[in-house]
Each structure stands twice: as C-alpha cells, then as structure tokens.
Amino acid sequence: MSLLHTIETGLRSLLGHRLRSVLTTLGILFGVAAVIATVGIGQASSDSVTARITSLGTNLLTISAGSTVTSGVFGGAGSATTLSMADVAGLQDRQSAPDIVAVAPVSQGRLSLVSASSNWSTTVSGSTEGWLVTNTRTINSGTFINANDVATRAQVIVLGSTTAANLGAGVGDIVMVRQIPFQVIGVLAASGGQGFGNPDDLGVVPITTAQDELFGGSGSVQRILLSATSASTIGSAYLEANQILLQTHHIQDPSQADFTITTQTQVLSTAQAVTQTLTILLASVAAISLLVGGIGVMNIMLVSVTERTSEIGLRKALGATPVDLFRQFVIEAAMLTAVGGLLGVGTGLAVGYVVPRAANIAVTITPLPVLVAVGVAVAVGLVFGVYPALRAARLAPIEALRAQ
Amino acid sequence: METDDLIRLESITKIYGTGDAMVAALRDFSLTVASGESLAVMGPSGSGKSTLMNILGCLDTPSSGRYWFAGQDVSRLNETELAHVRNRRIGFVFQQFQLLSKLSAWRNVELPLLYRSVGDRRRLALQALEQVGLSDRINHRPGQLSGGQQQRVAIARALVTDPGLILADEPTGNLDTASSRDVLAVLRELNEQGRTIIIITHDPEVAPVAKRTVHVRDGQLVDQVAA
Q1: Extended beta strands in A143-179, E state
Q2: Is the pTM of this model over 0.80?
Q3: How many Cα atoms within 13 Å fall on the side-chain side of residue B212?
Q4: Are A2 and A320 a contacting pair, CB within 8 Å?
C-alpha cells in the first residue's frame, strides 16, 4: 500500500473517532507545551541571573569569613577569627596589593527606615567609600559616604532609588533607623535591576556607624569587597589578598584559612549551575507528562486495534501484508503525536508570549528545546505505536474476520 | 501448468490444538477443481468445511499435504507471500459481507487494489460495480444499501482484481429469499463468463447454482455429485 494511501486511511480512521483523537492529541500537546514553557522560563531566569551578576563587574572579589575546620570538625559560626577593619587596612596597602584598586568592608542587616511621611524595610549596609567602586554604582544626587564620615561615625545614609522613592525622602531629609536619626546625603543612580533582590532597594551608612549604632560587633565585618585593577589582574589580586589575610590572621597552612575569597566568575558559574539544575528539574517533570501522553497514545491505539479487528482481518484477506498493517497503525500513532506536537509548539509559544505580559515572569524560547520537544513527541508516537501495530500485524486473518 | 486444474489439494490434513485437545479438522483430504468450474462444498457445521475454505482461500496453511494453486505450491508459503496470492488470485465473498461501514460502495470495492500498484482504481471499481448492477449506488455507504445490495458490493470487491477464483462463504446466509436469488444469479453469471467459483454452504437451495457439489463430513470428502 502506498504511503499516501496509508496516510489517507489513517486520517479517515482518526477523523472517524474525532473526540478520541482530540483527547489523545491533548496529552501530547500539553507535554510538548510544558517542556517548551518550562525550559523557556528556566532559560530566562538563567539569563537574568547571569546578567545581574556580570553587571556587578567581573573584577569583583568577595572575601567572606568562614568557620575554621580543624581535623574535619566545623568549629561553627563565630569560632573563626572574623574579618576586621585591620584586614581592610591591610588590603588597602598598595605596596603589598598593587592589583587591588578598591576595598569595601560590608556589614549588613535588614532594618526598618522611617521617614517623615512613610516607613520601609530594607537592607542596610555599613561600608566605606570603596563600596561605590566595588559595586560599580554611581551617585545620582548628593554625595556618597567619604573617609571623614567613616572616621567620625557620622549619622548619614545613602539610599537606593527605590528606597528613596518609597520613603518619599531626598537629600537633606532625616530618616530614622532604630530611633537614631540619619541624614540622607545621597541617592544612588538606578541600576535597572528587577525582581527579588532589587539592587535599587538598599541603604548604605558608614561601617563604623553601623558597627556602633546598628549591628554591634566592635570592629568586625561580614564581608570585604575588592576590586581588581582589571578583569585580567583578578588572579594576581586574588593571590595578594589571600597572602595578606593569611599573614594578618597568622595562618601558616593555607588549607586552614578562616576566610573564603570568591570571584564573580565563581559566583556566576555557581548561579548558572543552580538555575540549570532547576531548569532540568522542571523540564523532567514536563517530560514525564509527555511520556504520560505517549502512554495515552498507546492505549488509544490498542483500543483502535481491538475495535478494528474485523477490519484488519478483512484487509488481510484482501491482500494486506503484515508490513502493510504494521505501517498503517504506526503511522496513525505518529500522526496523532505529530499533530499534538505541532499544536504543543503553538501552545508553548503562546505561553511564552502571554506569561511575561500577564505575570512578569520572563520566558526565553530558543529553537533547540522546541525541536527536541517535537522530535521526542514523534518518537514517543512511534515507540508507543509499535506495540499496537505489531498486534495488528500479527492477527491471524481468519480469527480476525470472525470477530464482530 | 501441465493440466487445466486451477486447484489441486493432495492429502491435506489440518490439525488444531495439541495433546488431548488435538482435533483433525481435515483428514487426508484431496480435491481437484478445474479452471472455469463452479463447485458447491456442502456439509453441516463442524464438518471441516470452514477449515477447507480457509485453506482454499490461502488464509491458513495445512498441517500436511500439498496445495497446488494455478500450478504453484502454496502450502508452504509465508504470511506475506500468502497475502500476495490472496490479493492477486482470490476474490472473497463472506456471509457477513465485511464491508467497511465508513467507506462508500466504490471505496469498498477499491480496497484490494490499494494493496498492489494499480493506477485508475476508480475506473476498475466502477466497472466491477456495473457488473453486479450497482452503477447507481457507487457513492452509497453500506448502511444505505439493502443486504442484497451490500453482498453485491462485496462481490464487486471480489471481482475487481480479476482473480482466478471467487470463494464465497455462505454468501446468502444473511439474506432473504429474493436477495439470495439476486446474489446467486450474479455468481452464476460470473461463472458463465468463465470464472472459477467455489461456494461453501450448508443450504441445499444454494448448491444447485454450482455445476458440481461435494459433501464434507468429519473432515473428509463423502461423495461427489455432478449436477
């Protein structure tokens, strides 16, 4: 039987059971659409994380205090010699750290800010003038914290643009933090980020003021941010910082270091690994629904073979070979999944268009997952069509004819 | 072909089941049918005539013995080769008509032609329908036709491949007397045009349509009666 006729016969049979065909197709449709949509969402969040991290500058290094590990036993938080302002001073030494251009200690916490007209909870960081350079930010109005503010424990604060807007506060206004008045001396330029962890929602105060008035912890800092002179000197900046800290912390064995230095590249690859894992997880769930759709196809094809037993017997009597019948049923299954797959692509693309507009979730659709989803859908149809088709091909013509 | 025989069954035995459940449906059965002959095979149910029909129609193969069809030994062919023999050389007429209800009359008649490469299937199908007197019903579906008309469509389907043998299994079993007469008249006419026809039946009214009648009992040929 020619391929054209096989397809025609298949179409006629599928259209003869319209509701059944549509329901079976739906299973594949949703599977394919789910794969495309979830991979699209995963791709978009991965892109956005990558963009946000690279916007921080690739020559940024972050030093965090780590707990000491002695003979495999974690000493726990606080057991480590925390980072201190002495470390900051050491790292600022241009002699021993020629490749470090800026240093900024950071101690931060979530605090409530109260302005004359409003109040707003945000992340307040204690830092120094190096914060602006290491975070690659600029000031929009007013000034940033300077060395004098740090030295005099000045009660001044610089706000992110979102924070300033929410508080209805501008340069010169007073904002209360823990009942202590802080004067707003500057507002940062918007960095254009969005979603959770908005980089425009924050406040920065002098590190000394933060330690004394807000967080306590006399002279200790949570993190130290470093800027290398350029992206190419990041390696030597890393080595210099490591050397200086090992010396100031009196540590002989580098494996016993009580601090961790991470570069943006490391952060980037970690974040990418995380989003990739999430994407794979979501796509796997979607793939399972595709598999369930495939089982639906097999089920319907088995029903079809059983219902059409006498037709199969007749066709055999009239000269259809086992190969003819095998091909007939496999092609019917493949048509069901191909149609479901194509409609699934349409649905997936529609989801990719609607969701970002309706729910503020970015979706990035690339050709590869679309092609893979359709390919898998058709493969599912062929694989799950094989068993019913074999049943049809193997039916003995006499017995099949007798079935009514 | 050395003789004019279309069909030669030589000591055909067909055994179903194994062990204690073993049943010989046909035992050492021999039969010869000449080309252009018309033959009625009669016998009560359980006599083995259905098995005989399956073997004659190449729907089943014998357990032992040989079946020569148009000079070819078809008793040892595989399923695909048997399908080709059925498609090219045998036209079937069944008791239940076996028409596909979703297809029009001419689409039903066209079916066997789909399993071989033939152009112009519609013209051949319409010719076959004309031969059974149904030219005015080509687009009717089986449900829109009477039983007799349905069986004539089935006969057209058997004719369309121009087969050497038309094998009719109880062709009037589901028909009233008038329709039966119609269908039998068509079969007789086809035989007069030179086609070999074998009718399997238990109905003594049907047998006289054939020029020769054989009786089957307990899987064996009982006697041969020339009409």
Answers
A1: 156-159, 174-177
A2: no
A3: 14
A4: no
Q: Is A319 helix (H, G, I), strand (E, B) or coil?
A: coil
Q: Which residues have a Cβ under 8 Å from the Cβ of A121 and sit 6 or more positions away?
A: A110, A111, A112, A113
Looking at the DSSP bridge assignments, the partners of residue A228 are A100
Whether A321 is in a domain gets the answer yes
Smallest CA–CA distance from B98 into chain A, residue: A314
What per-residue confidence (pLDDT) applies to B227? 46
What distance in Å separates residue A340's CA from the closest CA in chain B? 25
- Quick: pLDDT tens for A144-156: 999 999 999 999 9
- Is residue A183 within a helix (H) or strand (E), and if so which, with residue range? strand A180-188
By the CB < 8 Å criterion, does A7 face chain B?
Answer: no
Strand partners, B90: B165
Task: Answer yes or no: do A1 and B114 touch at CB < 8 A.
Answer: yes
Task: State how far residue A50 is from chain B, nearest Cα, in angstroms.
Answer: 59
List residues bridging with B201 in a β-sheet: B42
Tokens 């009239």 sit on residue:
A318
> 3-state SS of A60-83?
EEEEEECCCEECCEECCCCCCCCE
User: Which tens digit of pLDDT belongs to each residue from A66-102?
Assistant: 754 455 555 444 445 578 888 888 888 888 888 888 8
Domain hosting residue A307, numbered range: 3-52+271-402
Residues 6+ apart with CB under 8 A from B22: B15, B16
> Do A41 and A132 belong together in one domain?
no
Same domain, A218 and A282: no
Same-domain status, A130 and A173:
yes
Task: Give the pairing type, strands A220-221 and A223-228.
Answer: unpaired
Kindly state whether A314 is in contact with chain B, defined as any CB-CB distance less than 8 angstroms.
yes
Neighbours of A4 (CB within 10 A): 8
The shortest C-alpha distance from A295 to chain B (Å) reads 28
Number of domains, chain A: 2
The percent of residues in chain A predicted with pLDDT above 90, rounded, is: 21
Q: How many domains does chain B have?
A: 1
Considering the domain architecture, whether residues A172 and A237 belong to the same structural domain is answered as yes
Question: What gap in Å lies between CA A163 and CA A142, rounded to an integer?
Answer: 15
Q: Are residues A335 and A376 in the same domain?
A: yes
In terms of residue numbers, what domain contains B121? 5-226
B156: CB partners within 8 A, 6+ apart: B105, B109, B125, B128, B129, B131, B132, B134
A69-102 exposure pattern, b = at least 16 Cβ within 10 A, e = fewer:
eeeeeeeeeeebbbbbbebbebbbeeeebebbbb
Q: Identify the residue among B50, B58, B114 best suited for mutation to test binding to A, counting A beta carbons within 10 A and taking the highest.
A: B114
Question: What is the 8-class DSSP label of residue A250?
Answer: T
